[in-house]
Amino acid sequence: MKIIVGLGNPLKEYENTRHNVGHMVIEKVAEEKKVKLKRNSKLKAKIASFLYDKEDIVLTKPLVFMNESYITVKKLLSFYKIPLNDLLVVYDDMDLPLGRVKFTLKGSSAGHKGIGSIINFLGEEFPRLRVGISRPPSQLAVDYVLSEFSQEEKKFLENVLKRCVVALLDWVKFGLNYVMQKYNRKDFL
Hints:
The protein is α/β, with parallel strands linked by helices. It contains 6 helices and 7 strands, in the order βαβββαββαβααα.
């Protein structure tokens, strides 16, 4: 079993913001795999599951605010009893250009409150997929991540989300080392 958690904020007003790229990736996988995300109050998340390459996959959108993301992760790990290497957390990253994706196994939060809450709970070593949203040109980081993508960026983002689906399925099938080598290249934008 593999669990993929896409970070974001649960309210409708945050749905299309840069900070919700993790949720967008989960929604795109669900759409591609024709599964419906359903509310699970016990796990404080919307959950969908499907079989891929003989592996049960659980897609998760936490229904807690970003800085409480660890709550859903804690509940998932307790309920499904999987090792950390079978968990993948997807989130937005301002330190990567828009559309760039990068798989990592460990590292700091770099100021990201959601991933920071999970690090405080799990430690720094667990699989992640960072999705680039670029740095704000001049505005405060908090205003930037809570803003929506421009029309031009939205067109580009659709292709990024599709690429993330393929990358996540490759992670399921081939593992973290494979996807790090394949997708972390700078020319793979």
